[in-house]
Design brief:
two-stranded antiparallel ribbon; alpha+beta; 2 helices; 7 strands; Alpha-Beta Plaits; 5-stranded mixed sheet
Length: 125
């Protein structure tokens, strides 16, 4: 079973709750959709027609990794940012927004979110 379809089970008083890692990854992706400066996930880069305008990007098969440890989530997100954006500011916004959305939707605390900038997208002139 791949990591994207792996399910993490949590035990509660009335039974177990299982959440697919793919569901959590989809929530993460949706949370990042409107963050200014984020061009796409690194894995989505392959779908972009103007691939020659990416700087230093190698295609990735998985841009969002989810792990659960003792009822806490740890996330890894690999993104491509737009040229000219402040990398540290955008990464901080990703961490804040993803943490807020995931904790509210899934109901589990997010321990950490590691953001890797895998490339920069340069607009075609």
């Amino acid at each position: 079973m791949s990591d994207n379809t792996k399910k993490e089970g949590l035990q509660f008083e009335n039974g177990n709750v299982t959440v697919s890692q793919q569901v959590i990854a989809t929530i993460v992706k949706d949370a990042m959709a409107d963050i200014e400066g984020v061009h796409c996930l690194a894995s989505d880069m392959e779908d972009t027609k103007n691939r020659k305008f990416f700087i230093n990007v190698a295609p990735k098969s998985e841009s969002i990794k989810v792990s659960v440890n003792k009822s806490e989530l740890s996330l890894e997100v690999c993104v491509v940012l737009n040229y000219g954006t402040n990398v540290i500011d955008v990464a901080g916004k990703i961490q804040e927004k993803v943490k807020d959305v995931v904790e509210n939707v899934v109901g589990l605390p997010v321990k950490d979110i590691d953001v890797t900038v895998d490339g920069i997208y340069v607009e075609e002139n």
